[in-house]
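Final report, section 2: Outcomes. Of the targets proposed, Outer membrane beta-barrel protein is the one most frequently requested by collaborating groups, and we therefore present its record in full.
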Amino acid sequence: MENWTEHFLLSKIPVTALGMTLALSALPGTVLAQDEDKPAPIQVITPEVQPRSIEESDIDSEFFEVGAFAGILSIDNFSSEPVYGVSAAFHATEDFFLQFNYGMSEAGLTSFEELSGNNVRLLTDSDRDYSFYNFLVGYNIFPGEVFFSDMLTFNSAFYLVAGVGNTEFGGESNFTTTFGTGYRIVLLDWLTIHADFRDHMFNSDLIRESQLTHNIELSGGVTLFF
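The predicted structure is given below as tokens.
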């Protein structure tokens, strides 16, 4: 009798346990142990990116550049006077260019002439005409861009120049060495504006014997590519 009862209870326990497990799994909010190992789904948010269009002016594919400039020329031992002239350039590579400049000005009075009134004149009116030309080699040392707005960008470059030429002043013709810097902004693919600094150096005998003079030029100009 006891053996039959024990056999009946033992045979019913696995079935009862299985039924309880299935019943619990059907209840709301009940999660089996194996579901706890599954990672939660990751929600991917795609950002809405709107591309920004920029109008950028490039240098034209042509290599020649011509233009005009005007500014102030400080003539050593004389006054600072207006200067104007023309320029032409050949862009040999992206970094190097060759430039020709011709400029004119007219010297004023020296400090000695101003203090003496109208009694002393070191130069005649014709000898006060100042003209120069030079051949320079330029190098674009800092090419970059100028941002005027979110939609408008211009190419630019800071450059160095050096070369030789000649200066006619005070009845003398003087071999001249020129060093300088400049800044260029490309407004259109055929139009640029410049701001330039130049030091024109030559030996002069006008005031004292064999004096090295520094004639500083500050000018701005407009050039065209073709």
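The domain at 59-225 is CATH 2.40.160.20 (Porin).
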